[in-house]
Amino acid sequence: MEGCTFEKQKLIGSTFVKSDLSSTYFINCDLTKVPMTTCDLQRVVFNHCKLTGTVLSGSNLAGTLFQDCKIGKTEIDLDGFISFGQSKGFVLEAQNEG
Fold this sequence. Notes:
It is a single chain. Helices cover 10% and strands 12% of the residues. With 98 residues, the chain is of the alpha/beta class. Strands 1-2-3-4 form a 4-stranded parallel sheet, with no helix packed on it. It is globular. The termini are far apart.
């Protein structure tokens, strides 16, 4: 499904577990509670989407764009959070103890 475009779709009840969705566009889509675990979400664009309760744990979020989305109780794991942050130019700083 790499490189697809979903526009104005209600995808509630859909499952994208272990899917390659890289370079996919979701525009004005409702992805409420959709499991997207362990997916390749590199360079995916979520534009004006509803992501309430969507599960993104275990997915690669490098370069993913969330533009004007409704995000609430959306789940990502630490690795996804870090890869998303690094793709936006953030760096993880180690704290020195002592």
